[in-house]
Amino acid sequence: MADDKSKTGQQDRDRVAGGQDYELQHLAKETGVTLEQALQLIRAYGNDREKLMKAAKGLANNKPSPRSSRL
């Protein structure tokens, strides 16, 4: 069933639509995780934007830093 176009204004900005590619891309770009990681986070934490942003930023901060090799 299509969205009710007469209901405008109040949007669900506190939720992430995991089935929408642009939502996954936005989450990944904002937090520095991959698209696959963003999808896994949604599966693990649900679609609450605040929880996802916190978990994703924590995941991005825990990435190992690339080691520079000196010869």
Key descriptive features of the protein:
single chain; 71 residues; mainly alpha; 3 helices; elongated
List the SSEs and their pairings:
Layout: H1 21-31, H2 35-45, H3 49-61
Helix pairs in contact: 1-2, 1-3, 2-3
**Element order: H for helix, E for strand:** HHH
- Structural class designation: mainly alpha
Q: What is the gyration radius calculated from CA atoms? A: 16 Å
**Ends distance:** 63 Å
The average pLDDT is 77
Identify the overall geometry: elongated
Uncertain residue segments: none
Count of distinct strands: 0
Beta-strand residue percentage = under 5%
Q: Helical segment tally?
A: 3
Largest β-sheet summary: none
Which percent range fits the helix content?
40-55%
Structural commentary:
- By secondary structure, this protein is mainly α.
- The protein has a domain at 21-60.
- Helix content is 49%, strand content 0%.
- The chain has 3 helices and no strands.
- The protein has helices spanning 21-31, 35-45, 49-61.
- The protein is elongated.
- The mean pLDDT is 77.
